[in-house]
Amino acid sequence: MTFANPLYFILLLPLAAYVVWHVVRYKRNQPTLHMSDTRSFATAPKTWRNLLVHVPFVLRLIVMALVIIVLARPQTSNSWKNRSVEGIDIMLAVDVSTSMLAQDLKPNRIEAAKQVASEFIAGRPDDNIGLTVFAGEAYTQCPMTTDHAVLLNLFQNVSCDLIMRGLLEDGTTVGMGLVNAVSRLKDSKAKSKVVVLLTDGSNNCGDISPLTAAEIAKSFGVRVYTIAVGRDGVAPYPQTVAGITQIINIKVDIDEKTLASIASTTGGEFYRATDNNSLKQVYEEIDKLEKTKLKVKQFSKHYEAYMPFALAALFLFMIELLLKYVIITKLP
Predict the structure, then answer these.
(1) Whose CA is closest to 173, among 205, 210, 195?
(2) Are the CB atoms for 197 and 113 separated by under 8 Å?
(3) Is the pLDDT reported for residue 222 higher than 60?
(4) Which end of the chain has the smaller Cβ count within 10 Å, N or C?
(5) d(CA 237, CA 103)
(6) Three-state SS across the chain?
């Protein structure tokens, strides 16, 4: 903790003189009564009020000290902090085409993928993780970061509504999604660079083919773990017609051969996920990867911290008044 106005602590010095003044004044103002013999008063019992006679003065000293601390404006420290952590660099490439609304995974493919991936992110606090989303085109939702609170917040905003609102073209450009993720990893100094690519379809648009993208990933030392999401055959899909949503069955069309080739080319693994547990297998495999040291720079802001001292001073001042004028009363 630091203080914005530390010179106010000089005011603590007069408190010693105030203590001396209080002792002299207390002895001078003691009432006297001339008695022929005072020995009988020596054994007279003292009430609990006698024990509290100096408490108001002590409370006033504490209140004055707290007020001086408030004037000095205590603040939390504001500094940059460097630390080294063990982690790997990971880009998540997630398909957000409208077919990801299919409900063969619960509640649907996109939400199941987000849930499992979010648990994975939360369980690896020292990894550099970023997010790419793709449909008919691809873009980076979040560059690689160790600030996973920001990443998770951006991840929760990922949905197929991007296409429904016209912000993204529909389709499945696996090649462009992979290249976008690799572009974020190509300059990384980490020993392990990984892309986790999740899709439920086959490449049907984009300027770069998936296998070409795989070769690009290989040239930069990036391993790609591909996940094909969806059950074999058909899957239930919500379709809205005239404001009424109906569940219809759509054909599942996944190019497993291409996804397996991408993984094989880059030294990764191919997975077929038909439920949430299958998705977790990918992240368990990534946990076994080699880790490397990363340097992280953290920043903390200034925050005023005077309020607890001010509240304590006010509370003790009220206690002092209560003791002095209500509980401990003296006759003139």
Answers:
(1) 205
(2) no
(3) yes
(4) C
(5) 6
(6) CEECCHHHHHHHCHHHHHHHHHHHHHHHCCCCCCCCCCHHHHCCCCCHHHHCCCHHHHHHHHHHHHHHHHHCCEECCCCEEEEEEEECEEEEEEECCHHHHCCCCCCCHHHHHHHHHHHHHHCCCCCEEEEEEECCCEEEEEEEECCHHHHHHHHHCCCCHHHHCCCCCCCCCHHHHHHHHHHHHCCCCCCCEEEEEEECCCCCCCCCCHHHHHHHHHHCCEEEEEEEECCCCEEEEEEEECCEEEEEEEECCCCHHHHHHHHHHHCCCEEEECCHHHHHHHHHHHCCCCCEEEEEEEECCCCECCHHHHHHHHHHHHHHHHHHHHHCCCCC
Highest mean pLDDT among 23-27, 48-52, 106-110, 251-255: 106-110
Task: Select from 263, 249, 274, 247 the least CA-distant residue to 211.
Answer: 263
Q: Report the pLDDT averaged over residues 113-139.
A: 91
Section 217-225 average pLDDT: 95
Q: What is the total residue count of the chain?
A: 332
Cα 90 from Cα 84, distance rounded (Å): 18
**pLDDT exceeds cutoff 60 at 169:** yes
- Please tell me which residue, 99 or 25, carries the higher pLDDT value: 99
Instruction: Write the CA distances from 38 to 43, 44, 314, integer angstroms.
Output: 10, 11, 42
* Distant-in-sequence contacts of 60-67, Cβ < 8 A, 24+ apart: 60/317, 60/320, 61/15, 61/18, 61/19, 62/313, 62/316, 63/313, 63/316, 63/317, 63/320, 64/15, 64/18, 65/12, 65/15, 66/309, 66/310, 66/312, 66/313, 66/316, 67/313
pTM above 0.85, yes or no: no
